[in-house]
Design goal:
The complex is a heterodimer of chains A (451) and B (426).
Chain A (H helix, E strand, L loop, with lengths): L1 H16 L14 H19 L15 H4 L2 H8 L5 H23 L4 H27 L20 H8 L2 H26 L2 H4 L4 H8 L12 H32 L8 H21 L9 H23 L9 H23 L1 H4 L3 H5 L2 H12 L4 E4 L9 H4 L7 H5 L15 H5 L5 E4 L5 E2 L2 E2 L2
Antiparallel strand pairs in A: 1-2, 3-4
Helix pairs in contact in A: 2-14, 5-6, 5-10, 6-10, 7-8, 11-14, 11-17, 12-13
Chain B lengths: L1 E5 L3 H13 L3 E6 L11 H6 L14 H4 L2 E5 L2 E5 L4 E4 L4 E3 L2 E4 L3 E3 L12 E2 L4 H10 L6 E4 L3 H13 L3 E4 L12 H12 L4 E3 L4 E6 L5 E6 L4 E3 L2 E4 L3 E3 L15 E3 L10 E3 L4 E3 L13 H14 L14 E6 L2 E7 L9 E7 L6 E7 L5 E7 L5 H9 L4 H7 L14 H12 L1
Helix pairs in contact in B: 1-7
Classes of the chains: A mainly alpha (451), B alpha/beta (426).
């Protein structure tokens, strides 16, 4: 009881403090406290992922002890079995999002966009990511986070997941179609109308943690052009690798089960080749797509596409694994380096050092896809209000994605950037009311107002 | 051609940027403040710890080198307009073909006995900020004098760092010389709710210092004596034209310029706060100490310098914005401070929250003249369109939703204004 009172007192004091002094605090200015927290979080992740026995996870059927055992009763309540390390992780993750989310809502209580958006994040984390999968598991159905889609959910197309879903009757079939619809229909449509924010800062679990627990660190994101360059150099290769991995695993799956399901190996081959050919054709046909990319970059992308296309055809015609990729090795490699180290240890552990969106900005393949859509096929943008900008820099400083918002605002240019997650904080901290997130048809175009 | 710009604020920078986009002329900027161009209105955020100094630099630090613009850190000692030379305090002499005066402004002083007392200062420049940071460490009580935008910035700075202070204001309400009465009352109540010790209708009569020359207390005309270790005088600014004293350049309150922003000497232009403009348009002041005016004038001067026939400076539709703690304020067009003949206004105030909208129109022609909003954001392009195209208030009111620039899911109040207008007409 006393701790609850103390906690609420602390939250209220944070509200009074608002953003002031973030550069004065050791926690939020990469001081000793910040570094200690970063170390604590990183080692926490390492222990949880690789040495759960240190936390008391029972080995070989032995009962849990220590830290993990604290959560046994809660786990039994939800799904009938003692806590696993992943249950503890999910429980704590959700708890932190809830607590820090309430703090965030109090801080921005005068801004309805922030309040509603955060409530949405809390809802999706609590229900979709935590409670519903636990209920599914307790009903002996495949447990799935219904909002976690491919490619962020990189194992959706893994053979074991496909088999699990296809062997679970109509419910499994529903989950299969739901997952496909999320990636290929629901997401593109929502992103067209609302930008990638519908996912990244309204629904996603990684976004949920970044927006709530990560809020005190948002100003630590690097705003330099070099950082922007590295962002593109890392995030698109991750997307590329996740696509290759998925292709290779599906290939080996169909190789082992050539005609067990309604999609046969040859259907699959045709679908993949048509998809790839379609992307290359679109890139060649619609030049607007690749504007802003250097000629060298443009031709490298197109020639990479052609090489891939040829490579796939060759490997299949010699009846080899697609592109001669060792699917198992690649899967292991991706799971370890990207799934565990990048999105977990660096993604969360580095909050106090590089800001709250390190994974979302540099690594997330979902963010990469949504970003491409947002940049080229979306109505979302941040509108700049005429000549009101006083170049103060609050927008850039508090952009968690490291976008130099000011450089656009002071020129009166609307901001259309693939990385923008639409958190709306730039508009909130602007002292002159210059910025507004919009998805309607363009209001001011070439200096003329459209009514 | 060599163009020398005196002053490295938004006006001088706008001149240089505009010039560089159009020509390869040699450009030298002279400043005694800082080698980095920073956003002056953002200095308060550095004090608050919301941003570091490097965060308030609007342009990449290598911009000037990359664009071949020389920045010289020195003060101007003399300007010889016959020889076309500027003498700097570091001994060097710059010859120019065209000169731009963009020296900005300096804080006005109370002209009491503060001249030889330490711990009394204004807040305008980077040096002022550094002094302020140094002087307000471990003080018991501070005083802010002047109910303007800088005064309220200081109040926010002191409140956030926990410095106790008294806020001395000459007028009956906060902001009554730039806000209509209802808005001034709203802002005043908002500030009072922050538990700030505000004393209205007070004029400071003199300061008392100890034997070290450090301020210890101040006295008001109401007979109060308040112990204070630090005083910030924020009673406005005036054009910074001291360096033009012994020159042939005509000055009055500011540097006098014609309609093309040219001084009496054709090779010398002026832009920004230091300018006293010859023919201000209706409702505008001849000296406008605004960021936006400085930027606009700078862009005109940057273009005009290269032209044989300089173009007329177009002041545009007036706009400004400010923020009192978390309360935002915007104004577009002409909004008179006091009730004037032939001006009608539709004023709405939120029953609980700190929000208000005022639309001003001509009661004879019904033309929409301007608007100001508190706690609400309006869209500049839309307001400007209504004013330039002379929309009638009866056309503006039904279209009001188009001006709203608040974030999504914010409350909307267009119907309330429509009802207020309709009730007024009956």
């Amino acid at each position: 009881m006393i701790s609850v009172l103390k906690w609420s007192q602390w939250m209220l004091s944070l509200e009074v403090k608002n953003e002031k002094g973030v550069w004065f605090s050791s926690l939020s200015n990469r001081g000793i406290v910040g570094w200690l927290l970063a170390l604590f979080l990183s080692f926490g992740y390492i222990t949880l992922y690789f040495f759960p026995e240190w936390l008391g996870l029972g080995q070989k059927g032995m009962p849990n002890t220590g830290f993990i055992a604290w959560f046994d009763q809660i786990s039994i309540f939800f799904n009938g079995s003692v806590a696993s390390q992943w249950f503890v992780y999910g429980f704590l993750y959700t708890l932190i999002i809830l607590l820090m989310g309430i703090k965030f809502i109090i801080k921005y209580k005068n801004n309805n966009y922030q309040v509603i958006r955060t409530l949405s994040l809390l809802f999706f984390q609590l229900c979709f990511a935590f409670i519903i999968p636990e209920i599914m598991a307790s009903l002996n159905q495949p447990a799935m986070d219904l909002k976690n889609m491919w490619p962020l959910n990189y194992y959706f197309f893994f053979d074991w997941n496909i088999k699990k879903l296809l062997n679970s009757g109509y419910f499994g079939l529903f989950l299969m179609f739901w997952g496909l619809a999320l990636t290929f229909i629901i997401s593109p449509v929502l992103t067209y109308f609302y930008g990638k924010r519908w996912y990244c800062s309204w629904v996603c679990g990684c976004g949920g943690l970044a927006e709530t627990a990560g809020d005190p660190f948002r100003h630590l994101s690097d705003k330099s052009e070099t950082a922007w360059k590295w962002e593109r150099r890392i995030i698109y290769p991750v997307l590329f690798i996740v696509c290759l991995m998925t292709l290779a695993i599906l290939d080996s799956f169909f190789r082992k089960n050539p005609a067990t399901y309604w999609i046969t190996f040859s259907h699959f081959k045709i679908i993949i080749l048509l998809l790839l050919a379609g992307i290359i054709a679109l890139a060649l046909w619609n030049k607007g797509w690749l504007k802003g990319i250097s000629t060298f970059g443009k031709w490298s992308i197109i020639s990479l596409g052609v090489v891939l296309f040829m490579g796939i055809i060759f490997s299949w015609s010699y009846n080899k694994p697609v592109l001669w990729i060792n699917a198992l090795k690649l899967r292991e490699w991706y799971g370890f380096y990207v799934g565990a180290i990048f999105s977990g240890i660096i993604g969360v552990g580095f909050y106090p050092l590089m800001g709250s969106r390190v994974w979302c900005r540099f690594g997330c393949p979902m963010a990469a896809i949504l970003g491409i859509q947002q940049r080229f096929f979306s109505r979302f943008r941040i509108t700049v209000n005429g000549g009101q900008c006083i170049s103060c820099g609050n927008c850039s400083t508090y952009c968690e994605m490291g976008i130099d918002v000011r450089s656009y605002a002071q020129k009166g240019e609307n901001i259309v950037r693939s990385s923008c997650v639409g958190c709306g904080i730039c508009a909130e901290v602007c002292p002159r009311g210059v910025l507004k997130l919009e998805n309607g048809p363009l209001f001011v175009e070439d200096g003329k107002i459209k009514f | 051609m060599h163009i020398v710009i005196i002053g490295f604020g938004i006006s001088g920078v706008s001149v240089a940027k505009t010039l560089r986009e159009q020509s390869n002329a040699d450009i030298t900027i002279v400043t005694s403040e800082s080698r980095s161009f920073f956003s002056r209105p953002a200095l308060m955020y550095v004090y608050l710890g919301k941003m570091r100094f490097q965060d308030i630099l609007p342009m990449p630090s290598d911009y000037w080198e990359k664009n071949n613009v020389k920045v010289v850190l020195a003060a101007v000692e003399a300007i010889d307009s016959d020889k076309q030379q500027v003498v700097l305090d570091n001994g060097s002499i710059l010859s120019y073909d065209k000169l731009v005066i963009a020296t900005g402004s300096v804080p006005r002083s109370l002209e009491l006995n503060e001249g030889n007392i330490s711990g009394v200062q204004g807040f305008y420049s980077l040096q002022d900020l550094l002094l302020l940071q140094k002087s307000t460490k471990n003080i018991r009580h501070a005083a802010i004098i002047g109910g303007g935008l800088i005064g309220v910035e200081l109040a926010e700075m002191f409140l956030s760092t926990g410095i106790s202070f008294t806020f001395w204001i000459r007028e009956k309400w906060f902001g009554s010389n730039f806000l209509p009465e209802e808005e001034a009352q709203l802002v005043t109540n908002y500030l009072k709710n922050k538990n700030i010790d505000i004393r209205f209708e007070r004029e400071i009569t003199h300061f008392v210092a100890n034997e070290l020359g450090q301020v210890t207390s101040l006295h008001s005309q109401a007979g109060e004596k308040v112990d204070t270790d630090y005083v910030c005088v924020c009673i406005g600014v005036k054009p910074n034209i001291d360096c033009l004293e012994n020159t042939n350049i005509h000055t009055n309150y500011g540097v006098l310029v014609n309609t093309c922003l040219q001084t009496n000497i054709p090779s010398i232009y002026a832009a920004g706060d230091c300018v006293e403009y010859a023919e201000p348009s209706f409702g505008r002041k001849s000296v406008e100490t605004l960021w936006y005016t400085g930027k606009r004038m700078g862009e005109y001067v940057g273009t005009n310098i290269l032209l044989d026939q300089p173009q007329r400076y177009d002041q545009g539709i007036f706009f400004n914005s400010a923020k009192f703690f978390d309360l935002e304020y915007q104004i577009y067009g002409h909004v008179p401070v006091s009730t004037e003949e032939n001006y009608g206004s539709v004023f709405w105030k939120h029953p609980q929250k700190d929000k208000s909208i005022r639309l001003v129109y001509d009661t004879v022609s019904d033309e929409f003249l301007g608007c100001c909003v508190l706690g609400i954001r309006f869209r500049q392009e839309v307001c400007e369109k209504w004013i330039t195209e002379k929309w009638k208030i009866t056309e503006v009111l039904p279209a009001l939703a188009r001006a709203n620039f608040d974030s999504e899911f914010s409350g909307r109040f267009e119907m309330e204004l429509l009802n207020i207008y309709n009730n007024k007409v009956i």
